[in-house]
Each structure stands twice: as C-alpha cells, then as structure tokens.
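TODO from last week: model Ornithine carbamoyltransferase.
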Amino acid sequence: MSGSQRRHLISIEDLGIEEMHGIVRRGAEFAAGRGEDARPLHEAVVGTLFRKTSTRTRTAFSAGALRLGGRLITYGAGDLQENTGETVEDTAAVLSRMLDVLVARTAGSEAELRAFAAQGRMAVINAMSAAEHPTQALTDLTTLLRRFGRIDGLRVLYLGEGNNTASALTLALSRYPGTELHLRTPQGYGVDPYYLDRAAEYGAAGGGLVSQRHDPDDLPEVDVVYTTRWQTTGTTKADPDWRRAFEPFRVDKAVMEASPDALFMHDLPAHRGDEVSAEVLDGPASIAFEQAENKYHSARAVLEWCVGGAPAGDADA
C-alpha cells in the first residue's frame, strides 16, 4: 500500500467533526450489511500490539482487518525489544517500514502512540490508553445511530468511574447538537476537567451539553443509561475502601425505572452485581451485546478511514 494516505486515531480530537460523523455512519453501513465487498486493506499488513487484556477490541480489529483484505501480525505484551531497552522511536522507525497500520493498546499515556505516529509511514490506532478509549466512543455512537436513527438530541446518563471510556464519550457526544450527557461519578473519580472543558467548547460551538455531578440520586430522564466496570482494565485504586464510594452508583432496576423507555449500554466486560445488576444486563432494555458486536463494524470503519478509504462525512448524523 505504498503511497496511500495515512491517518492516525489516537484521540477523538484527531478527527474533524465531519470525519467522525462519517466514520460513525460507515460503521452503521457495515452493520447493515452494506460495503461487505470493500477491500481497502488489500495487501496491507496490520500489526496489533496489546499490552493489556482485550476480548472485544482485539477481536474486532483483527477480524476487521482480515475482512477488509489485510494481513495480520500480532504482538503480545513482552514481544517487542522495547522490553529490553530499545527506544520507542527506534521501534517505531522499524515497524513503520514493515506495517501499514498499527493497532495498539498500551499500558500508559498516549505519548508512546504519538511517537509511533510521528514516523509518518504507518497509521496508528489507539485501542485504549490510560486517558482515552476513542474506538469505544465511535462504537457507542454507531450503536446510538443504529438504534435511534439519529444522535442529535439524544440524552445519555453515565454512572460510574470517569475513566477512559467516559472521557472519549464526553468528547464525542458533545460534538452532536442538542445532546445531553449527564455524568454521575463518585467524588474523586470523575472525568478529568480537560475533557469537560473541551466538551463545553464544543457545546458553545453548537454541540451538546455535558454536566458532571457526584450525586447518584440525581437521575434525569434519559434515552440511554450507560455504565462501565468500576475497575478499569489494568488499573488499581489507591483507596482500599473504594467500593464504598461506588456502590451507590450501581445500575439496577430502580435506576432504569427512572427512565422507563431508556436503553442500557455497557462497554463490557461486566462485573455482574457490581456496576450493574444481572437483571438489567440481561433485561429487555439492554443492548450491551449488540453494542459489542458493533465494535467489529466500527473497527472496519476506522481501519478504512486510516488508509484513506472512508467516505467524506457531513454533520447531520
């Protein structure tokens, strides 16, 4: 694929608003069975580097790359010579001469991903960093679009930790007019102010409203109730008694009854009985496993965009 355009997705903010809308729509098209013959990764080599456990994201991007005509090389947490002292820059200089796309889930900040992207030869996709999970946010938007036929004006209640999933969702949903994202997080475990400030800027420019409060009883009526695991993959909490702060934020039947028509979303994996009751996760309002399936469709849209193949988007999704 020499000479093809390369694009990086390390943060939602790497996408223009129209680009983001286009990827979301393309994911919905793939989910509807359109574009199944597309092979934008024909002869492309895609590397997947996962230093943290992954079921949905790793499988989605691996299967997506193969379905789009690519070839796959997988790296585990201890496979690269970075573990023996080679610099990120040297590793990137080598990989970029052999790979067309690198899908990476790191153990830390986005700095390593930016270093991989700086070489300019291969596209780099953030499959989850400590700060942000952009491909999950795109999956969530694709799920909303498929279910509601629109994203503009939707109201979402998020309960739980202000983690990388919440940060990415904050950036992404606030780019749609009339949306409302109500964050309900335990004190000390909220979404970082940087993301709230950026969301406010998007809102002021015609986007949506994002608010964060620490009261689990303040439950506005919404279209979607969303939660994630209380213990983010690969992390620990300093306070040994942290569960006490989180338990009031569990999504159970009473929470869902506050919005009788709402759907339930979860990025999975779930700890049943912690952040969500089994009754809700397995109940008729839950679309969590449909959401997981959409990660595969969204991954294909992201891969296509990264090699310059995604259709141009507009801002009416």
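Done. The chain has two domains: 12-132+296-306, 136-292.
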